[in-house]
Amino acid sequence: MRDSLKRIEFENHDTRTVNLRDYNKNYWEIYALVPEPSTYGAVFGGAAVTLLLYHRRRRGK
């Protein structure tokens, strides 16, 4: 199975950010070292809400 993984190639594949690994004996997993864009949106959205609430609380004093 490992030999099969070595023969697979993807067009425009950057081996520094996307890799293949064995999931179990029948499947492979494609995983990325860089988070998906929705992850960045969730993090920055949560930070924005936190800062907004903090600003409102400080202004109210």
TrEMBL record:
- InterPro entries listed in its UniProt record: Ice-binding_C
Q: Which domain of life is it from?
A: Bacteria
Keywords on this record? Membrane, Transmembrane, Transmembrane helix
Establish whether keyword Transmembrane helix is in the entry.
Answer: yes
Q: Where are the transmembrane segments?
A: 37-54
By its UniProt entry, which NCBIfam families does this protein fall under?
PEP_CTERM
Protein name per its UniProtKB record: PEP-CTERM protein-sorting domain-containing protein
What species is this protein from? Cephaloticoccus capnophilus
